[in-house]
Amino acid sequence: MIQTHPCKFCKKPVTLSIDDDHAVLADPFGLLRLAACDRCSDYESARRQVVRNVKRICELLIQRAVAKDDIEKARESLETLVKKYMRLYAEYNNLALADYEPQLVDALMGKPTHFGQVLCRIPSLFAQRALI
Ligand SMILES: [Zn+2]
Questions:
Q1: At what angle do helices 38-62 and 102-110 cross, to 10 degrees?
Q2: How far is the CA of 2 from the centre of ligand 1 (A)?
């Protein structure tokens, strides 16, 4: 069964080939709401990988499982991940790369339990830049 449905992220049409066995056994239209184009699904999986890696480091910081000598390595890893997140965001949204702000990593190091809120600030770096 071939179906066309808008990508759940960018709304561009995505053509899906749903296996006939699935169409018989389950609700094939349930799959349609999950439809994503290659560009969006590549971005989302790369972005989620970065978030998972940030979360892993933050969990170690929360558990105080990072030796004092490795604190600087944790900071460098978080900096690399934040920059990667910024690059992914810029490429996906076709924006010029915003300036890296070390305060983001300071915030992650200072309040690792708030890692999600800190990462949510990244799009605003680009929004601020667009206003200038
Ligand atoms: Zn898309």
A1: 50
A2: 18
